[in-house]
User: Which sequence fits this backbone?
């Protein structure tokens, strides 16, 4: 994509440098220069080296591990751009951390996703571009425009080329049925649901498979995989239901704690993910994980946001 980027400039925090570079390659531009450093006590220090006065600024930062450090880094960069007289500041957040805490699930708990939305707005963000929010309603927590992109075009294209025969798409819980149904429709595949019970955060027990999986190639579809407890329990239930193969697919590979060990020990043949979260440590060496890039989607969204073209039409 060739663009004249005299009117806009793209910066990146330290959370996902490979994705940031790939997005700029799509835009045929270079990353803006910024220093992101730490004081000896861990305090974040930001210094912007390029002139951003009257510019349309995009700052790319996933709020993945270490979540709080990356979030504060993003907030400080936004504040720096605001104080440098940027015309508009767009926070490009491929993975939006704290999205799972979008409602009160018990007395006296915070709605953390709402607080993070307010922090971004207060810091000076004028717009947010993100991908596959855990709950679409989180867009309503913001008083600024939010473009919630979808990884579906990239994931579905992979499925059509590599996992196309006799498919059934599995939602790992009731909340993901709408997403699974949309994939199943576009792949002309069957649909099934896992009935599960969650006893505490990051702990789940799959109880039963609702739908026909016998003799089929099953794909478990979710927005993220964290400790992989839900995923592997679902895979075991699907295998017990007679599925020929079990694969999994998600947008955000958080993969914390015992996730890789659980995936390696499970019936899952492959886990297809995107690069919204960089793979580090054990996840990077897991042979079952296939990483697809969403740089083109973000590059196109940034370009269209700058020019005022429709972002929604990317997914029609």
Assistant:
């Amino acid at each position: 994509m060739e663009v004249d980027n005299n009117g806009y400039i793209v910066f990146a925090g330290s959370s996902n440098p490979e994705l940031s570079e790939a997005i700029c390659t799509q835009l045929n531009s270079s990353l803006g220069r910024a220093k992101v450093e730490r004081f000896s006590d861990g305090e974040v220090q930001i210094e912007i080296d390029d002139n951003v006065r009257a510019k349309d600024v995009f700052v790319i930062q996933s709020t993945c591990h270490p979540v709080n450090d990356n979030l504060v880094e993003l907030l400080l960069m936004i504040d720096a751009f605001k104080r440098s007289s940027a015309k508009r500041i767009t926070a490009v957040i491929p993975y939006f951390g704290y999205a799972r805490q979008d409602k009160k699930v018990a007395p006296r708990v915070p709605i953390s996703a709402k607080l993070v939305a307010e922090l971004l707005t207060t810091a000076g963000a004028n717009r947010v571009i993100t991908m596959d929010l855990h709950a679409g309603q989180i867009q309503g927590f913001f008083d600024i425009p939010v473009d919630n992109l979808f990884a579906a075009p990239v994931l579905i294209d992979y499925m059509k080329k590599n996992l196309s025969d006799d498919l059934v798409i599995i939602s790992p819980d009731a909340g993901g049925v709408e997403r699974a149904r949309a994939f199943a429709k576009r792949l002309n595949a069957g649909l099934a649901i896992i009935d599960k019970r969650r006893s505490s955060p990051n702990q789940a027990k799959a109880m039963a498979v609702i739908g026909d999986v016998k003799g089929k190639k099953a794909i478990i579809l979710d927005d993220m995989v964290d400790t992989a407890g839900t995923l592997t329990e679902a895979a075991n239930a699907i295998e017990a239901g007679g599925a020929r193969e079990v694969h999994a697919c998600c947008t955000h590979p958080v993969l914390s704690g015992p996730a890789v060990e659980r995936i390696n020990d499970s019936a899952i043949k492959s886990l297809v993910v995107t690069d919204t979260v960089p793979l580090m440590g054990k996840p990077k060496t897991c042979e079952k994980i296939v990483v697809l890039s969403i740089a083109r989607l973000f590059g196109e969204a940034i370009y269209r946001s700058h020019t005022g073209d429709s972002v929604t039409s990317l997914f029609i």
Notes: The CA atoms of residues 115 and 274 lie 26 Å apart.
